[in-house]
Amino acid sequence: MLNEQSLLSLPGYALRRAANATAADLTARLDRIGIRLVDATVLMLIADNPGTTSSAVGKVLDIQRANMVPLLKRLEDAGLIEREPIDRKSQGIAVTAGGKARLAEVRRVIAEFEAELIERVPQRHRDHLLPALNALWR
Amino acid sequence: MLNEQSLLSLPGYALRRAANATAADLTARLDRIGIRLVDATVLMLIADNPGTTSSAVGKVLDIQRANMVPLLKRLEDAGLIEREPIDRKSQGIAVTAGGKARLAEVRRVIAEFEAELIERVPQRHRDHLLPALNALWR
DNA sequence: TATTGTTATACTCTATAACTATA
DNA sequence: TATAGTTATAGAGTATAACAATA
Question: In whole angstroms, what is the distance from residue B80 CA to residue B35 CA?
């Protein structure tokens, strides 16, 4: 339809379009099992770091402290995480048994998504994608 | 701080983080010359497709028709684009002289941004990034 | 009948400021 | 004095529905 060539030659543009398209795809897949992409990401991070705090999670994922509140409340209300005091100021977060079951579903969906994602990349480029991407933001 | 390993091994996660980080960077750079990232993108697309329509631009960039209205109004109010009727239903969009001057600035900023972006990618991965990304969404 | 451009509005996501309590 | 958790709210960005006019 339109000439999009000068945009398509820009890695930054391709990066945004690819991220938007794939995030929309994964969001739709996770919606089918009733969980949001951010929530699933937080859940995975907590599972690998039992006893971590809201602040620590927020720092790693670049989520503001204030925005962690309703997010963790959702996970707690859904019975996926539980909190217990570390001291009188902080509280440690852990994934519940129910959360682990849900996490198994999440991991299945994500594994399938990631497999189909990487399959779309021509073989000779495949192994370069992850290191190239991580070099861009880490 | 936290163990982020299982997330970092997911191309989809790395893709989102890389896109968010680089988009924030470019947004800040373009802000210094007083233009938004979306507006700059639309301006580039119109420049390469003089006489195109609002609908056509929206379709290529996945922007809803309704959201094109205030966007094009901004560009028009800034004197960067002009519209003239194609028939009594559609109108063709073109970049004005002032728009072309602004576009030169935009291209300079973006070229610098893209150069620094690709420099962060280890050399052996560099040539693989663009084709891998475009394979993901095109 | 489908498309263009538009208006108005709802919704989601994120950012900011301020506050309390505790390390 | 800095940090953790929280509340309330503002703002930006996007989505949805409806409309008139024209192809």
Answer: 11
